[in-house]
């Protein structure tokens, strides 16, 4: 079948609009025409973005009937859904116009995106970073004009991000320049002005009146929009809530059973034991690679997936980022740019150096214990989970949106629609590695707790954004039912409140993959590796859409 020319042109137009409207996302994706710009969230800029969006909607509605491939049909659905969600985000008082953290994230990660990866000569990247630093004062002035009231927790998070940004601009950038033997010159003057803009925004946030209790909820209508037009789920938010409650009960039962089999009365005591199972200091960095190689060998031996050649290197978090990173959305594993295609991906692990105080070394080793390295850093993120899934999205996906949707950007992934596949596959990958006996009994207990948290996220997402729970009640639920420490429970609740419809994608995506596998296993000729390869080949698009395609096409 020949490609549908009218749809292809409409997709070109959408992606051109997207990269221009979200220039920081474009940098992370590997499209560099807008590397010197930040988004325009002024009233005129938002109006221009919405006008472009409406023109795209009209263009899609007028497309002539023409033969389309499966990937083209999927892309049309995805673009139409994305435009519905982006229209809500750009105009709602519950998103950009109310959330200061979205402004601080775009501002500072517009710079960080240009420092992290050597996709171009350093001189070119620094020139673009300097242009973005010069744009930060105007951009944060727009933020002050946009945000007149906000939930206190959102303001607190944005203020922490201001602190991290100031640290990066005033000290981290200097360390980066010194490491690369670059004279400060104009870069430092632009950084100083940007740092002052963050101070001004911090002062603005400190002066805002406290928001009302219900402001953290996006509301049932918006939540249903995200569920229906973003994740394309075959259920509404009430169905997601019921699913979450069911799996919450299952996970609690599993935790108690596994704890009992280990002779442990309270499963929390078992999780505490894992903190004492950590690599030796002298083998700390090498341990990541050892576990990665073991996970790959196990997956290949059991025929789980056709493992791609996609080198990854575990390295300490760069010195220039260490002061700022704890206050920012600074990820260990950031999905590689879809179009930069660097030969080796760097995974930034917690630094534990010989010259650190011994007490700090012990603290970091306990926090980065063996189960965290194996389950989170290696399996979920750096190997069978996100890393393998990203390779398939970039190199095998026929969907143009499926190639870019799950790229990590300033505060979230590039397109909402990428969530159920990206996180669903990564959580399912950990289930797979458990199936083949790769986990110790204590690590299995930790994975059961991950399943409990995954179900709790779905319950919390719906109850919070439907208005049934306040932010405080959501945090209490995470603490009392999911076993999170008080500080972690509040952080999880705040994150859920700022990004509605995202916490539920873990459970929904994972459950849909398991359901699809069970159905396909009943068909003659089922092969597990082929099933996974085929599933991954669709890229980062909603699992519900992938499942419908695979079920319709059959085993071939």
Features:
mainly alpha, 65% helix
Ends apart, CA distance between termini = 18 Å
Individual helix count: 23
| Largest pleated sheet | 2 strands, parallel
How much helix is in the residues?
Answer: 55-70%
- Rounded to the nearest angstrom, the radius of gyration is 23 Å
H and E order: HHHHHHHHHHHHEEHHHHHHHHHHH
Overall form = globular
Strand order of the largest sheet: 1-2
Count of DSSP strands: 2
Mean pLDDT level: 95
Strand content: under 5%
| Structural class estimated from helices and strands | mainly alpha
- Poorly predicted regions are none
Textual characterization of the structure:
The chain is mainly alpha-helical and 556 residues long. It is 65% helix and 2% strand. The protein contains 23 helices and two strands. The chain has a two-stranded parallel sheet. α5 (100-116) runs antiparallel to α6, α12 (284-301) crosses α14 and α21 (505-521) runs parallel beside α23. It is globular. The mean pLDDT is 95.
């Amino acid at each position: 079948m020949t490609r549908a020319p009218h749809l292809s042109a409409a997709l070109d137009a959408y992606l051109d609009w997207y990269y221009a409207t979200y220039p920081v996302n474009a940098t992370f994706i590997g499209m560099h025409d807008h590397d010197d710009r930040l988004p325009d969230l002024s009233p005129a800029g938002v109006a221009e973005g919405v006008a472009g969006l409406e023109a795209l909607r009209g263009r899609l509605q007028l497309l002539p009937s023409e033969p389309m491939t499966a990937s083209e049909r999927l892309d049309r659905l995805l673009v139409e859904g994305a435009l519905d969600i982006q229209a809500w985000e750009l105009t709602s008082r519950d998103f950009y116009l109310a959330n200061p953290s979205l402004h601080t994230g775009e501002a500072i990660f517009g710079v960080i995106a240009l420092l992290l990866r050597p996709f171009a000569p350093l001189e070119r990247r620094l020139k673009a970073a300097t242009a973005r630093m010069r744009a930060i004062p105007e951009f944060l002035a727009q933020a002050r004009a946009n945000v007149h009231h906000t939930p206190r927790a959102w303001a607190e998070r944005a203020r922490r991000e201001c602190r991290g940004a100031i640290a990066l601009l005033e000290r981290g950038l200097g360390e980066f320049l010194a490491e690369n033997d670059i004279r400060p010159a104009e870069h430092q003057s632009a950084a100083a002005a940007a740092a002052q803009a963050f101070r001004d925004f911090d002062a603005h946030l400190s002066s805002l009146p406290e928001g009302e209790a219900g402001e953290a909820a996006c509301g049932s209508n918006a939540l249903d929009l995200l569920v229906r037009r973003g994740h394309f789920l075959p259920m509404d938010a009430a169905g997601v809530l019921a699913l979450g409650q069911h799996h919450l009960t299952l996970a609690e039962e599993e935790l108690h059973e596994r704890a009992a089999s280990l002779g442990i009365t309270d499963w929390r005591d078992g999780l505490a034991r894992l903190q004492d199972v950590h690599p030796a200091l002298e083998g700390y960095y090498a341990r990541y690679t050892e576990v990665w190689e073991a996970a790959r060998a196990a997956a290949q031996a059991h025929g789980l997936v056709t493992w791609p050649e996609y080198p990854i290197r575990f390295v300490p978090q760069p010195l220039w980022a260490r002061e700022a990173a704890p206050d920012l959305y600074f990820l260990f594993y950031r999905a590689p740019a879809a179009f930069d295609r660097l030969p080796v991906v760097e995974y930034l692990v917690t630094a534990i150096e010989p010259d650190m105080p011994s007490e700090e070394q012990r603290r970091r080793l306990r926090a980065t214990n063996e189960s965290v390295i194996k389950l989170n850093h290696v399996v979920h993120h750096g190997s069978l989970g996100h890393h393998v899934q990203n390779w398939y999205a970039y190199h095998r996906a026929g969907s143009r949106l499926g190639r870019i949707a799950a790229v990590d950007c300033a505060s979230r992934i590039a397109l909402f629609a990428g969530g159920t596949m990206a996180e669903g596959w990564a959580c399912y990958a950990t289930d797979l590695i458990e199936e083949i006996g790769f986990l110790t009994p204590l690590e299995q207990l930790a994975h059961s707790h991950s399943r409990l948290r995954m179900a709790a996220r779905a319950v919390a997402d719906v109850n919070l954004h439907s208005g049934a729970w306040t932010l405080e009640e959501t945090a209490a639920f995470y603490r009392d039912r999911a076993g999170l420490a008080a500080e972690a429970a509040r952080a999880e609740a705040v994150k859920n409140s700022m990004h509605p419809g995202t916490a539920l994608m873990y459970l929904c995506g994972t459950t849909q993959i398991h359901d699809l596998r069970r159905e396909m296993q009943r068909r003659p000729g089922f092969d597990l590796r082929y099933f996974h390869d085929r599933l991954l080949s669709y890229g980062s698009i909603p699992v519900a859409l992938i499942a419908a395609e695979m079920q319709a096409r059959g085993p071939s």
